[in-house]
Amino acid sequence: MIDAINIGILVVSLLIVIAVFTSLFSSRFGAPLLLVFLGVGLLAGEDGLLGIQFDNAATAYFIGSIALALILFDSGFETKLASFKIAATPAITLATAGVLLTTGIMGAAVHYLFDLPWLLALLCGAIVSSTDAAAVFFLLRLGGIHLRDRMQSTIEVESGSNDPMAIFLTIMLVELIAAPAGETHTAWSFVQILFQQIGFGIALGVGGGLVIVELVNRVKLDAALYPIVLLGSALALFGLVGTLGGSAFLAVYVAGLYAGNVPLRNAGSLRRFQRVTTWLAQIGMFLTLGLLATPSEFGVVLVPALVLTVILIFIARPVAVWACMWFFDFSRADITFMSWVGLRGAVSILLAIVPLLAGIEGAQMVFNATFIVVMASLAIQGWSIGPVARWLKVTVPPREGPVERIDLPLPVETDQEILVYKVHPQSRVAKGELIPRWAMPSLILRDRQLLQSHMAGNIKAGDHLYVVTAPGRAGLLDQLFAGPAADDHDRDLFGDFILSPDALLADVARLYGFPLKKGDEEVTVAGAIKREHHGLLERADRVAYGPVDLIVRHVDDRHRITEVGLSLDADDLSPKPIVKDGLLDRLKANLAARRKQRGSEDK
């Protein structure tokens, strides 16, 4: 018995290490990392190289549920409340109406492809109706894909909040299929269950977030115990809400959203612990689900499952997204990209286990088909998400360049925090810009020697600066210590010139000799952009006006335009000597600087 336990520990630990090292393969060949984890589980399973026998669906569901709870809590923890606010309405619409539409379309496809009864076909549609939060978060954040705030927030919030509807539909349909003959369920009873799950999930999630914050901030513990309190509290909330009949997954996401947006003791170390825990949960969940699958049984459903994947990717998801997003002032490129980012993952496989646990006839076929759909979705959409984003031109440069920063915990509660920065060679500090007096470094680590700031002289590239400052100012300091943002001054994306948002369109029209539209004599360049974009403005939003494009270069925290770019569409445009308020001089100076910069780059 002891030998068997030791062997089990050895095998599991080796699989985890192997899964981690497959990330090297993923980064080298561009393979979706989650698909690689799933592949490792398949290779270790009963049809794989190790031949591990694992067919306990209940255990797999238990492990997967805990892992997904941790992932969703971290997803909420890392989501800024401002981002949630700007995306809440479209994201929730997509997470409810979009899931219902996808279920209906996929149910019809399954009914005709697999010749299954309608209830079982709709069950299959519900199982694959929600996007996978883990897959979306990992591919967007770790893939370095930077989108406009509103679109990225909509995608992430939708993927984190659409599980309750998919879970509700799955459980409802399982109950209908498994119900004894003669037992009936009214539509009203299911509506009550839905509102109970969502209501309990949100209310208890907020309450749980409050409790977690109070425990971390008020209870005096050893610093190493706070991450354990955070982890244990999130899982306790998950179990409590599920027991009371609410949506446990929604509750942990909401709790994480609340806890991540209020002051929290040792926030830096907690976030680092969360990242480690999330990676471990992700690896463990996909390895377990891979072990549960039996690829030798896939042949019977392989072809119809692949056809089902094509319908899901190219019909069901796009129809649902376009129907829900058409009224929210997203561009066609934005909606098309949101349609493409509908990756399926562990959530769908977990839901496919529910019919197995209920003993429904045909459940194994449903599980096998779902597994194939998930693998195909991760392969097709996961591999192409970057190229599709660039093809649709929905990416924007990062707001800041690379920055190396460590948040050090303080032994007692105080209104200060310690930040350690490594000076990037091309940062503003390395080029001689002064550090504000409210963030003067107390120590500088240079060539393995600790120096006091007044003895270190000028800051050099590679220095490590220990800065004591007030909480909440790390974002300001990041701008000083970070390297240059990639493509921040890209001519195609942000234009040839920089204009004040208050510059008049009439001046620009006279300068370049194109006709001004009637009634635009007193309209500013910012006003012209706002007139075309009715929603919140984001960086890189652009409006064509005659032969020029007006582009949003920067917005403030309230999404007000602070800087506008001007892009010339026609090569033969040249400034005319008719302008006021020095606009011509500014444009000429900008053009000369642009030519000088491009000339130095060519050399």
Automatic annotation (TrEMBL):
Limits of the Transporter-associated domain: 490-570
Cellular compartments annotated: Cell membrane
Top-level taxonomic group: Bacteria
Primary location group: membrane
Transmembrane residue ranges: 6-26, 58-77, 89-114, 120-143, 164-182, 194-216, 223-241, 276-294, 300-328, 340-360, 366-385
Gene Ontology BP term (one): proton transmembrane transport
Gene Ontology cellular-component terms listed: plasma membrane
UniProt keyword annotations, A-Z: Antiport, Cell membrane, Ion transport, Membrane, Transmembrane, Transmembrane helix, Transport
Protein name as annotated: Potassium/proton antiporter
Protein's organism: Gimibacter soli
